[in-house]
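Homework help board

Subject: predicted structure for assignment chain

Our instructor gave us this sequence and asked us to write out the predicted structure in token form, then describe one feature. I got the tokens but I'm not sure how to describe them. Can anyone check?
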Amino acid sequence: MKMSAVFGPTIQGEGKSTGMEVMFVRLSLCNLHCVWCDTPYTWNWEGTSFSHPQKFDMAKEVIQMSVDEIIEQLERFNVKAVVVSGGEPLVQQRELTVLVSRLKAKGYWVEVETNGTLVPTRELINLVDQFNCSPKLSNSGDPYRLRIKADALCAHAQSAKTNFKFVVASNDDITEIVALVNEFKLKDVYLMPEGITKEQLLDKEAKVKLLCKQYGFIFSQRIHIVQLGGGRLV
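My token output:
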């Protein structure tokens, strides 16, 4: 698999499983190019024209690892919960399915982070314990035709295993969020402030909490940044 890193133990810092002790499997490659992405080293290579200012050497950042090698690293620690993140994990869905199948056979809880643009197979849905789906808004800088895929969002909306997270940069984002929730009948919806520093997140916290109260959504802070400082762990 095309990897960025295996790291942990740490905590799941946002969304439905906030605070859970986990290991992370961070995959490389993404089909979107969000201007505020906090893991651009998984996709924003030198020579690309994407708006995100941080560029990286693909040859240095992408690590090839087999499923056996990934599991070997995870088993060094006594933590039986794994978050597969990215990048966009479903870009490597065939290999991801093999990895999740092997992890489930070993008794792991497995969450998969996704931007909701690629349809998960029925096999993968049956294997994964939880999908954390984060559809991107216009504040991401990605065009609508790339970031909103009806077939993928409908598949997630019909699964009891999927929750939805939206990154809120300003109060204006709520119009887009409500429209998507209503159009695709999304449930279990979390709102998170946008930011890559503790100060940015805390500055927006009160406004996002108020939006949650007004519209019936669930607030999620990004505690891996607020409490642990965030930043690249490996």
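Reply (TA_rk): Your tokens look well-formed. For the description, you could write something like this. The mean pLDDT is 95. That's the kind of observation they're looking for.
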